[in-house]
Amino acid sequence: MASKQLVLRCKTKDGQYTLDTLTGDNTVEDLKGHLFSITGTDPIAIKVLAGFPPKPLDLSNDNKKLEGLPLYSGETLIVEENAKQVLHQKADVVSPLCVEQMNSSAPGILMRRTVPANNSCLFTSVYFSLSNGEYDISAGFSLRQIIAETVAADPETYNEAFLGKPNKEYCAWILNENHWGGAIELSILSKYYGVEIVAVDTQNIRLNRFGEDLNYDQRILLIYDGIHYDPLMLETLGSPQQIQTLFQTSDETILQMALEIAREAKSSRQFTDVHNFSLRCLVCNVGLKGQIEAQHHAKETGHTNFGEI
After folding, report:
1. Which label site among 97, 152, 164, 260 has the fewest CB atoms less than 10 Å from its CB?
2. Per-residue pLDDT band at 238 (split at 50, 70, 90)
3. Is 33 exposed, middle or buried (0-12, 13-18, 19+ CB in 10 A)?
4. Contact (CB, 8 A) for 275 and 248
């Protein structure tokens, strides 16, 4: 029996498009070919995110059928260029700021390092950055424990007004790995480790800086799209295996490079307005608006597959 038609909405830096000529029997190579016709991006450099929160699709096997990917008819794909591949394969489309850095004595190119969208992306990203590139998906819980212990030890500072819930209740809440981190957690981790943490907001093109007023010597950079955090790392030119995630706070150039990444992400709609975006549950087709409704629906029904409308 023939596979069902896949109707996919594609968000690109140039606008939105609909693909309705593919089925589950088509291959990854077929998908790349269609995306190439839309975006003009070399298939080797195409990166696709899908689902909610958006996660990168593994497009490494060109012969794999689309029915083997976590794709659902009606969902939205975010299509972008893989920065690393663009640098290696298409030097002519590297951002102007990166070119400027390459032509000077700068040590490398600032890039995004994707981590899983598993409710602990903030903690995984912070650990990756603090360890100068050590990836450990299990390290998030130790950071949650640090936050809980810090909060419990200072109930005067971390009171209900600050936390949004009673101190003891918050400590139990943050230890639950189903709960996301945000500004409160970044401020605590910044102070605990004595490092400035900069969250680069791709929706508002803004640097949210934690610990900026404490004169720390080093900073780490995270990129934030409204839901998901990823760490930013500097890849050494000519030596891709060598990366840097800790930067001197006196280095303003690295902040400008981070803002350039945020601008590129916004131009290709790589952000999520968590309060106003419209979703559809891909299990029962109910319409939802914003993060809170999606979370409530998931809790009530167990449905976790959503597509942005």
Report:
1. 164
2. low
3. middle
4. no
